[in-house]
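pasting for the record
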Amino acid sequence: MNTITTQDFKLLRATHEVMVLDIRYNGAFNGEHLAKSRSMPITTLPNHLDTLSKQHTYYIMSHSGRRARVIAEFLNKQAFDAVAVIGGMKAFRQINVA
């Protein structure tokens, strides 16, 4: 399974356009999310695979990164290129404060 640290992800986003799937529930997404990220709650994601392209790399964002790993592994098994953001929004928020 592919993973990326939040620090490396921040640097990647600064220099490249990336596709972020935020798998948190709508309430958490609506409260705070990364610009240009796409909300796809973990419970509905399997029903929406037909809306994803196998031509793109998807960076999976969850609250702490744990569920991102599960979903990235699931998507990789479905032949999608998915990368889990380790630490999730919790860690991303911390590096943006520092």
